[in-house]
Amino acid sequence: MNLSLYGHGGEWIAIDCGMMIRQDLPDSPLQVPSLDTPAALGITPLALFITHGHEDHIGAAAWLWPKWQCPIYATPLAAGLLRNKFTERALATEAIRVIEPGEAMESGPFTLRYLPLTHSIPESCALLIAAGNRRVLHTGDWKLDPEPLIGHSVKGSLFRALAPVDLVVGDSTNAPLPGHSRSEGEVARALEQRLAQCAGRVVVTCFASNLARVLAIALAAERCGRRVSLMGRAMERMVATARGLGYLDDMPPLVPVSDLGYLPPEEVLVIATGSQGEPRAALSRMANGRHHSLELGVGDTVIFSAKAIPGNEPQIERLKHGLARLSVTIWDEFNHPELHASGHPSQEELRTFYGWLQPRLLLPVHGEHTHQEAHRQLAASLGIEAPLSPVNGDLIRFDADGLTLESRHPQRPCIVNQNAITPLPGLSERGSSRHGTLYLAIPVAASSPGWTRIGRLMLDRHGVGALDEESFVDWLDEQLETIEADSLARLRLALQPLITAWLAEHLRHLPDVHLQLMAVEPPGLR
After folding, report:
1. Cβ contacts of residue 37 below 8 Å, gap of 6+?
2. Structure pTM?
3. I want to staple 300 with a disulfide (CB 3.0 to 4.6 A). Which of 18, 30, 201, 518 is the partner?
4. What is the sign, positive or negative, of the torsion defined by CA atoms of 518, 62, 212, 311?
5. From CA 182, how far away is CA 378, in angstroms rounded?
6. Structure confidence by residue, pLDDT tens digits, 85-117
7. Can you tell me the distance from the alpha carbon of 98 to that of 78, in angstroms, rounded to the nearest whole number?
8. What are phi and psi of 403, to 5 degrees?
9. 471 phi and psi angles, rounded to 5 deg
10. DSSP string spanning 78-92?
11. How far apart are CA 113 and CA 180, in angstroms?
């Protein structure tokens, strides 16, 4: 849930705008940064700069940007993902501007340059920020991967040319770990070796944003005589966005999920979302025997090519217990650590990087307090001053005297419903219906002959019984494709009774249904 603000001479810029999914709360809402403190301090950023396209760096932008209305600068992949998110929320995308890795620009008193680094998503960049007579390197998330599979390895000469920098605001995630993080190239070879040992169906779950991993899995599957299919909307959207930008050109042809049942088990490989135990993800539905296209059983293998995010362990264990009940073989970070690589630097990478940059000061960020303390200790061993371990809400001054904690502003949790929509004027109060109320907001675009849903369906239900949202969304997409209507009004007239009939068939009690259709432009036309 990253959001950093840098100020100089009374003007400010924002770096990243991320969210986290609160799987510990009912309906898994989103938590986004609270803007109470910036508002109280009179801070409105001139611009928002994005270091890379991970959810913890871009996921809150569509929620918070409307309060700022400032330009957003991002590299092509992150910009494409942001446009998708803005389109889902029916927001205009003109504020999102593409900047290429290596480019520099000015914003008020700040000069910034995007410096490419390797991470578990393409186009991750550090930001060199200059203001007044000081230069700060904001690293974002990074590692030194000699074989990243997508993109190039880090050029040490680029960062040596910057030395010495005044301050590094640096990634502490793996600071306690000795050695060097594993390369994506190593993982690719390990995946191919392990896949060759599998007999039945194979499901590999990983983060959709790790495009190098997705490509490695697909190529390994092809070499082992398997056909590849994608499961999960996040995976499908990420691959589609990446392909539109020229990534994944080597990806083998994909098999539709609906065709998997026609293939022999030994020819099936699925790349699926759900590595963190998300209850609505494809893998959880398979573990519960509720997936409409694939059933797992004896002889099948599920590979977790991702580590557990701290806090997600309980739901991941529930997922694995569900798979174990199906007698599925499970390979994960514990019995096969070679099948995953972290996207963050271990101690040897930190030493190498700081040897290039020769920073005078370090402000350790990311990770927990123990990670930041380990980072400070490593910095001290290199002669780098690191006087602070910041917490969320700290206002820190950087001047001739170094780093000083100016004030501390405790941050309240800011929870938003990821499916929340704004009811149309005049609608009844939430939950006032005897059998509940269902609000639907559907972003659509005209296609030929019917209509296409663009982005995520926004669904808000109150007092409504259990609803299989995945089945409903699949059915809805099929209906939209077949409805010929020349306006949103006619589409709504055709769709409303169909939705009512579907709900009557699948729910014990029929709720009040409030349907809102939003016309959007397909992302590919922008």
Report:
1. 393, 409, 411
2. 0.81
3. 201
4. negative
5. 20
6. 998 888 889 999 999 999 999 999 999 999 999
7. 9
8. -100, 130
9. -65, -40
10. HHHHHHHHHHHTT--
11. 27
